[in-house]
Amino acid sequence: MADNSFLQSLKAKHAALDAKIAEEMKRPLPDETVISDLKRQKLKLKEEIESAEG
User: Fold this and answer.
1) Which of 4, 12, 35, 42 could link 17 by a cystine bridge, Cβ 3.0 to 4.6 Å?
2) Model pTM?
3) Is the pLDDT confidence value at 28 over 60?
């Protein structure tokens, strides 16, 4: 199991990516490439969080 501060850091990054995705989707012409990239990063972080939680 990972240390708590590391896990909290990953969760904070995950939440920040979620906010960036929401922000991009609010634009009049959202950039689908940017959204896809952010979602890919978010998924990678989610997998890392799940792995760290054990």
Assistant:
1) 42
2) 0.86
3) yes
